[in-house]
Structure formats: structure tokens, C-alpha cells
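Name: NUDIX domain-containing protein
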Amino acid sequence: MPPVGIDLFDVERLLLTEAAEPPLPSHDAETRDRVWERAVRANPALFDGPVVACGGLERSGPRILRLSWVRVTYRHYALRRVPGAIALPSLFVNVVQPTVDGRVLAARMSPATAAPGRWQLPGGSVEPPEDGAVLDESALAGQAARELAEELGISAAAEELRLWAVTRGENGSVGLTYLAPALSEATLRADFTAVSAAERVQGRVPELDDIALVRSPDELAALTGPHADYLEPIVRRFAGCR
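Structure predicted for NUDIX domain-containing protein:
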């Protein structure tokens, strides 16, 4: 069973609806801005870019979830440090990248990131659609495919990724987990090495500094460092489906 506080939904379809950001009292907004400014002074790499938050998640039928989403910026999540304020849950995509022999790739965040040393699946925050575009299942799969390419150097078309699970964990954060086609260990390691080297050539620190291939929750537990809260339930589910 998933750890306490982690919900894992088996899902085949998402129904997506945009919602407005809830009104924020001026005091909470001012405190949020002060918290954000302190965070930026401590870590100048923080960027207040556009991002999508989760406005609500509910079942709409067997293996169907209705998800409302809200346009915010990263500054919004500073509300988590404002006493009495309510921050919307974050929304992110990630990918189960299996090997041909049935293992799952876990990736470790580099020291320069907001979660140094944390093991997780490759992925990232959901970005809002550009003007005139829509945020639908195809667009979300495309964002998951882009994360695979940027973080691991793996080229996968959005059509090759299948929505496999939805998780809800810390702070109510919702993760949309996609399943990618299996690849050999040699291919995964070569692609990761190449994309990391390319980032360093450009003078950038790679977002990920290591990968591991695990077959079971026990092997996952042996990885030193913090783990994303959804990681063990996802690895357990994949191991049970083999």
C-alpha cells in the first residue's frame, strides 16, 4: 500500500478545465512577496515564471479524473510559508522510464536545484499553454516527453507516452505519471551521459547528477538521500504489474 498521505489513482483519461486563481487577501499577498524576495536573495537562480497549479481533482467515472488547473507563477508557492494562507497544490508531469529487463529509472537532483540530492522520476512542473493553445492530454504528454529529452537525452514522441497513474502527495501536489517505452540500460546511460556533458559545455549545471535503475521498493530504499514522496508507490506499482 502507498505510504500514509499518498494517494495513487489508476487512470485512463483526464478531463481538464481551466479555473481562475482564488482571490488573495492583500496581507497574504504582501507577505508572500516578502517570502519570495528572501528566497531569491538566498538562491538567485529562482525564477518567477509561469506555471500551472491544481485547482481541484475528483473522480468523474471509472478510471476518469476531472482536473481543474489555474495559471500562477512560482511565487504563488511562497504562500506555503505564510501562516494562515492557502496555496494551491502544484501540478507536475513525470515519467516511468523502464529498462527492457523490468527496472525503473530513478534520477537524483543536483546540488544546484531546489531539492538537492532528492531521488525522483524525470519530470517537471506543468507550464500553461501559449495564447490560442489548449492544455489537454496531448499537450501534457508533450511536456512529459520534453522533460525526458531535456533531463535524460531520451527522444520519445508524445504519442509513445501513456498516462499510467496520478499521484497526490505532500501539500496536495498532483503528479501525472506517464509510462515510456522500455530501453536498454546501455542506451539510457549513454543518453544521460551525453546530455549532461552537453549542459556542462554550455556552462550550465545539469539538473540531474546521477541515475539508478531499480527493480523493487527494497532496491529503491538503498538509494542514499531523500526520495520524492510518490517514488516508492510508483516503483511498487510498476513492480507489481510486471
